[in-house]
Write a structure and sequence with these properties.
Length: 102
Amino acid sequence: MSKIQVLRNLVRELRLSLPSHEKLQHSPAFTYIMEYYRKNAVTDQQYCREQEEMAYTAQTYSTYLESSRRYREIREEYHGRGERSVRETADYVGFKLPQDPQ
C-alpha cells in the first residue's frame, strides 16, 4: 500500500472515530499526523529509514482505528439488546418454534 493510501485510510478512520459535531481539522490527532507526515516527507532521490517506520506506524494506527470502530459496531448490534426471549432468539436465527396444541 502506498504512503498516500495509508494516510487516506488513517484520516478516514480518524474522521469516523470523532464525534459528529467535531471537525477533523480541529483535532489534535489530525494536526499531529499531518505535521509528522510533512516532517518526514522525502524526495525520490533520498532514502530514509524513519520514513519507512512512519509508514508502518501509520498503517498500524489505521488498522487499530478501523478494528476499534468495527468492534463497537458489532458490540452495539449484538450486545446492546439485553436478554432475548426464546421466540425472539428462534426468529433471529431462523428457526420456528413448535406450535402449542391447545
